[in-house]
Design goal:
By secondary structure, this protein is mainly alpha-helical. Helix content is about 55%, strand content about 10%. The chain has 2 helices and 2 strands. Strand 1 (about 5-10) and strand 2 form a beta hairpin. The termini are far apart.
């Protein structure tokens, strides 16, 4: 699946991402894997924020 290009309006950029975890491992441990997904997304957004601020 192709990701849509970031949308830039003036000095603001909107980035869209989509995550989906499914299957037997997720069904077996949804809470633990949900926490791992949240941590992964939080780290990814932190890195994105740092890079965006460096571009200023």
């Amino acid at each position: 699946m192709d990701s849509p290009a970031p949308l830039q309006t003036g000095s603001q950029v909107t980035v869209r991402t989509e995550e989906s975890w499914s299957g037997a491992p997720v069904d077996a441990a949804p809470q633990q894997l949900g926490q791992a997904l949240e941590q992964s997304l939080t780290a990814w957004l932190s890195c994105l924020k740092i890079r965006a601020e460096q571009a200023d």
